[in-house]
Amino acid sequence: MDIMADSLLMLSTEDLLQRLKEAGINVSEDEAKKFRAVSLSQRFKEVFTSIVPKVLELQRNTPLAKIYKEAREEMLAEDLPDSDFRTALILLPHIFKEKAESLITLGECDADNPYPTIQLVETDWKMAFSKRVQVLVKADGVEMCRGIGVEERTLAACSAYYVFNFAYPPYMKNTLTFLQHAIAKITVVGGKPLPITVTQVLNILC
């Protein structure tokens, strides 16, 4: 399982497009051209980077954001862009009134969660914000992949939904739908209209 989830990030663009097609996900020719221009991981980072300032601003008063503010004051200037990116990913679910801890958790544990979950081996949020820490992606208690950095493992967790044909869990549906449509620009053939909440956030952030 770990090989399948992680290897999706290593697929050639054409193989990735074929894998998406087989999963019933329609990628238009214009979208395919964009995929061919950059790798999936590069595209994810570039598009999400553009909304980082707005996410941080909208969530500036949350408890996690206050912890990040303290951590940020102790960081070097050159480390701030990567740290801002990680923090925005962690805070994103709060914009949809969903819990960040349902997607990204502190500490390695054996919670019986059937959906892909990102686990930071670090047990302190302040440290997790400050540096790229070891991260696992687990589903149903099984480790799917392991690596360094919330950025890459978030993409791996999202990719796992396509690899294993998982439906989005109700408690994280809006966040994952937003990442799919706003960041990856992927639409599903015959899919339902976007939830109003996702559309509203799209208009604010993008």
Q: How many β strands by DSSP?
A: 6
How many domains? The number is: 1
Q: Write the H/E string, N to C.
A: HHEHHHHHEEHEEHHEH
Biggest sheet, in brief?
A: 4 strands, mixed
Based on helices, strands and strand pairing, what is the structural class?
Answer: alpha+beta
Q: What is the straight-line distance between the termini?
A: 34 Å
Widest sheet, order of strands: 2-3-4-5
Mean pLDDT: 81
Runs with pLDDT <50, length 5+? 1-10
Shape by Cα distribution: globular
Percent of residues in beta strands: 5-15%
> What helical percentage do the residues reach?
40-55%
Count the helices. How many? 11
Radius of gyration: 16 Å
Summarize the entry for a quick read.
This protein is α+β, with helices and mostly antiparallel strands and 206 residues long. The protein has helices at residues 2-7, 13-22, 29-37, 40-49, 52-58, 63-72, 80-95, 125-130, 150-163, 173-183, 196-205; strands at residues 25-26, 104-106, 117-120, 134-139, 142-148, 187-188.
Task: Provide key terms for this protein.
206 residues, four-stranded mixed sheet, globular, alpha+beta, disordered N terminus, 6 strands, two-stranded antiparallel ribbon, 11 helices
